[in-house]
Specification:
CATH architecture of the largest domain: 3-Layer(aba) Sandwich
Helix content: 40-55%
Oligomer: single chain
Number of domains: 3
Structural class: alpha/beta
Distance between the termini: 78 Å
């Protein structure tokens, strides 16, 4: 039997991407914008069909919410980027003599997740085409069909509008060694990694530039100064959205006991079920693998009733969200970790200081740099959280899922790739968008630094001239 030569497959795919990248370099802004407009139209018109395909193939989440995700990824992202200049000169400072020129990065490998397969593809295609970068897609194995359909649809729309052939490609081979060779190919410019911890880790191990993400584990704190009806509405809206599959969804409710007594009936009226301690104990091993410290894949995006049934109890049909008490954070407390499902861990604490401490511990356990949500009308509380927690997105009075994605309840860039800074191993702490996919060339015209040239040469030759004298000479007359 002939041995499989993985590098030949990678070479052929990157050769096609390099040719597409060369064609892209000659495009002007109008040509790029026409292509992006055509792709947006195709994605928007197919939003329902692609959502249905994703829902049926993956078996997770809520169909109607996947339609909304596809709408966010097409409409919100398009509206955010459509007027941006991404070709040629994008800025000029005549006084400083600096001109900024936008250049594409080159072929990009795009890793996409199980939880948001078609919406992530739509998002990445729009920002990549806007910046003239070819994409090669590697989807999650359990979402290959819907992902391939999305890529094929958008590629057809792009080429029809004037984009080069093979501007979007799809890794059709399933063996991980094909992906391994593409990740390390010398012609690959960048990896745009959204997916499981393992796949993001493998991307970083490739020695290629990577724009990655971090895990969530988002605490939500409700302060006594907050609008409790708004808090109840927002938390339920966010945590039940697509059955909690977005990494920015709330994972733990932190609240002082007095406020908890008032908020609890409001949450119950909105379809929440407060579990007993015994029920919470049962949910732990059902939803979380304590040995490997990972959420169990088979519970991701499953309805609250399914989780309860697997844990050996039942809830009324109208229940949308389970809220389970927890007495600690870290090993030994499985519900204190990120679990992408409609299950919200509940910490009722005695004091505000306790609430700050628990929120910090949850954030540090598995969500550094990602997102923290607080409900308060006190600026002092906001400042306390800024000083204590590590969050690229500190959301105030906002549903965490919709708030972190951006463009709905705030002015953050609409994005399906939420980077989390160096504490999560990411280079950016940002909602990734077009600006992160550009190489910026700077044209620097001669503008002599008169202060430097005015310092006499003896200043660099006479050791008796100390630092204060150098500073005086440098600054004199200016």
């Amino acid at each position: 039997m002939e041995p499989i030569v993985y590098h030949e497959y990678a070479d052929a795919m990157l050769d096609r991407a390099v040719v597409a990248a060369q064609y892209f370099k000659s495009f002007d802004q109008k040509t790029v914008d026409d292509i992006v407009d055509a792709v947006f139209q195709a994605a928007y018109e197919a939003r329902i069909d692609l959502a249905r395909m994703a829902y049926e193939e993956t078996g997770i989440g809520v169909l109607a919410h996947k339609v909304i995700k596809n709408t966010w990824a097409s409409l919100l992202v398009y509206e955010n980027i459509k007027h941006q200049k991404t070709v040629g000169e994008i800025g000029h400072d005549p006084e400083m003599g600096i001109t900024r020129i936008a250049q594409p990065r080159g072929p990009i490998l795009a890793l996409t997740p199980l939880t948001n397969p078609t919406s992530t593809i739509i998002f990445k295609v729009l920002i990549a085409l806007k910046t003239r970068n070819p994409l090669i897609f590697s989807p999650h194995g359990a979402a290959r069909k819907c992902s391939r359909a999305a890529v094929d649809l958008l590629h057809e729309a792009a080429v029809r509008a004037g984009a080069p052939a093979n501007c979007l490609q799809f890794i059709t081979k399933k063996h991980k060694d094909y992906l391994f060779h593409i990740m390390r190919h010398p012609d690959l410019a960048l990896i745009l990694a959204t997916g499981t911890r393992q796949i993001v880790k493998e991307a970083y191990a490739s020695a290629k530039p990577v724009i990655g993400i971090g895990p969530g584990n988002v605490p939500v704190y409700v302060h006594e100064t907050s609008d409790l009806d708004l808090a109840a509405d927002s938390i339920v809206l966010s945590k039940t959205f697509d059955n909690g599959t977005v990494c920015a969804s709330e994972q733990a409710l932190v609240i002082e006991r007095g406020v908890d007594a008032v908020l609890r009936p409001k949450l119950e009226a909105r379809g929440c079920f407060f579990c007993t301690e015994e029920q919470a104990e049962r949910l732990g091993p059902v939803t979380f693998d304590s040995q490997n410290r990972l959420m169990r894949a088979d519970v991701v995006g499953q309805p609250a009733a399914v989780l309860a049934e697997r844990a050996g109890f039942s809830v009324p049909e109208a229940i949308r969200l389970l809220i389970a008490p927890c007495r600690g954070v870290g090993p030994g407390f499985p519900l204190s970790y990120e679990i992408l499902t409609p299950l919200l861990t509940h910490y009722a604490v005695d004091t505000y200081a306790d609430a700050l401490d628990v929120s910090f511990k949850l954030n540090a356990l598995g969500g550094r740099g990602h997102t923290v949500s607080i409900y308060t009308n006190s600026e002092a509380v906001i400042q306390d959280f800024i000083a204590r927690v590590s969050a690229g997105r500190l959301l105030v009075n906002t549903p965490a899922t919709q708030g972190a994605i951006g463009g709905l309840y705030n002015s953050l860039n609409p994005s399906f790739t939420l980077s989390c800074g160096t504490e999560a191993g990411n280079i950016f702490t940002d909602n990734i968008t077009t600006t992160h996919l550009l190489n910026i060339q700077r044209i620097a015209r001669r503008r002599p630094n008169r202060r430097w040239h005015a310092v006499p040469q003896e200043a660099w030759q006479d050791s008796r001239i100390d630092g204060k004298e150098i500073k005086r000479l440098y600054n004199r007359n200016y």
